[in-house]
Every structure is written in structure tokens, then in C-alpha cells.
Amino acid sequence: MTLTNRDIVELTAWRRQLHRRPEISNEEERTAKEVVDFLADTGPDEVLTGLGGHGVAAVYESGKAGPTLLFRSELDALPIHELSGAPHASLVPGKSHMCGHDGHTAILAALGRQLGRERPARGRVVLMFQPAEETGNGAAGVVADPRFGAIAPDFAFSLHNLPGVPLGEVRLKTGVVNCASRGMRIVLEGKTAHSSMPETGISPMMAISQLMPALPALGRGTFADDDFSMVTVTHVEMGEAVFGIAPGQAEIWATLRTRRDDRMANLCAAAEALVTRIAAEHRLSHRCDYHEVFLASVNAPEAVEHLRRALDEEGVPHGEENLPMRASEDFGVFGHKAASAMFFLGAGERHPALHNPDYDFPDDLIPIGSKVFMRTLRNLLG
């Protein structure tokens, strides 16, 4: 049930290889092939590729009846230029693994190595290398793929590294661990005019100036409340970058966030009603659309208990501090198909934050994450 020193060296080198050649959401074709090639020696009984985009599922069968366990990692990187200074830093300008998905993938690959040496006593294991987590469409695409039905799990487990938590410690709790969120794009249409005669046009300027404070004001409650909601304006654009034209068009982007999925519908309705009212006041037409939709991630009690048992048996310290988080995570989709749970593995109290340009995944987490998953697997399947 343990990795050899050689395993750790090779997995670390492979993780760094992935780090050098990042691919952002929905572009992970080469990364997916790297996964398939790396797992070939472990002899999976079935490998599904192209799941929900570029997803890969490696299936390890026991040949005996029992539950299906799915362990998930992510393949995608971010559109961020790396400034870590690491010898294995990204070779692709403007793209980098600033969330540690390369490390999560290495942890699942470590699980594959161990399963290649010894299959579970019963049931089966699915290693799910999921695309497009950062844009929120990856897990939904995987689950919507007609082939997913054949590997549908009874339990689904995942992890995410977490800077700000001592290296190797775990944070885990039942219930909501990540918020639901979605990006709302609001387009306002009026009429352009010469800047010397703005009265002949219909400008969105006043509507934008009202919406920027009014949208955040829709937020309710504190983060400790189940009814918590917040709206963050992230981008505003109006007219052309010229001096001679009074604007006739504008866009405002905002991120809507709630702790509960059912609260999101209410927040969207309130935001759309606000836009409709303000647009009408200023004689503007408008439209709203949504992007990067994330469901809330909710840890099932029975799945959490299996992880807690594994943590205790492996001597990994854990607690509930830092949870839930405002940030979103598309693993929540799997929770609608199976008893699921995600734990958060400390990357170090002073480690650069996720999505920062100087971040790099701590390689010391590879054996820790894999042994927790492996213990969970053996406890459930023998």
C-alpha cells in the first residue's frame, strides 16, 4: 500500500514534466495522452478517452461484485504567466499550473501504480482525470457523456491542495465545502452619437454607474449563514476607446456566489430584475447570459467518514478549520451522482496562494495524498 522511493522520484519528475507543458481548460489533449501513456504499464482493464472533452477514465476491475469508487483529479492549467522561478517552470508563455492540478494528477497516477501491482479484492476503481475544472464545464461534460453511465460510481473522492494550511495537514468536513457560483454577463444596447452631440444618442453610462454598486448590494447575510450570497463586479467595458464617439453599448460582468444551489436561482432572478429595471429607466435594450457555472460542492456524511477513517489510520492530522470556502469547485457535480467528498491537503502556511503567478505544487504532497486515497480504497474494497 506504499510507494517506493523510486515511485516517488518518478512521479515527481513526471509531475514537473506536466508542469512545463500546461494546457488550459478544454485544450488538454496532450496532457490526456501523457496520462494514458504513463498508466499503460499499470495495465488498466479499460481506458476511456475523450470523456466530456479530453477526460480520461482508467478502470481497474477486481472481477468480483462490489461498489465502484471514483477518484478524480483535474487536467487543466490557467491562463497565467508563471513567475515562480522554478527549474521546471512553464515553457508556454501566459499559461501555467498555478492551481496544482499537475500535482493532483500525479497523486492519481500514484494510485494507478499501486493498483497495477494489486487489484482491489472486490468492486472496481475508476481514476477520473477530468478536463476543464477551471471553467466549470469539465465535470458536467464528463457526467453528460453517454459512456459515463457504464462507470457510474457509488462513491466519488477528490482532493485539492490548500496554501495557508500547514504542509501535509488535512481539512475536511461534512456539508458544503465550496460555494456555488456563476459568471453573469450583462449587455446594454443604446445608440452611439458624435461626442459633440451626446444628446442625440442613448448612452449606457448612467445605467452602468447605477449597476456597479447596485449589483453587489444584492448580497445577503454573512458567510456563516446558509442563505449567504454575494455579487462581485469583475469587468466593465463601455463604447470604443476613442474621443469622438459617445458610447451606445456596454458590458458589465459579475460573479454571483451562494452557499446553496437553491439560493442561486433567487440571486439570478434578483440580478435580472435589477438589470431590467435600470435598463428600462435609461431606454436601453439588454440581455443577460451565464458562464462558468459551478454547483455547490457538498460532502456526503458517509463519504467523509471513510476519508476520516483513512486519515486516522495513516496518522495524517486533520480538522475542519478554513471550511467551507467561498471559492468554487466543479467536483460538486459528482455529488449528484454518488456519495462524494473532497478533502483539502495543506500546501504550507506561507506557500504562495492558488492562482498566484509564483505558486508551485509542493511535491511532498504526492505520497501523502496517494496514501489517504489508497487507504480509503482498501478499507472499502479490501
TrEMBL record:
Annotated InterPro entries: Amidohydrolase (IPR017439), Bact_exopeptidase_dim_dom (IPR036264), Peptidase_M20 (IPR002933), Peptidase_M20_dimer (IPR011650)
Domain Peptidase M20 dimerisation: 182-281
Residues holding Mn(2+): 99, 101, 134, 160, 355
Keywords in alphabetical order: Hydrolase, Manganese, Metal-binding
Cofactor annotation: Mn(2+)
Coiled coil residues, start to end: none
Family annotation (Gene3D superfamilies): 3.30.70.360, Zn peptidases
GO MF entries: hydrolase activity; metal ion binding
Keyword hit for Iron: no
Cofactor note text: The Mn(2+) ion enhances activity.
UniProt-listed NCBIfam families: amidohydrolases (TIGR01891)
Protein name (database record): Amidohydrolase
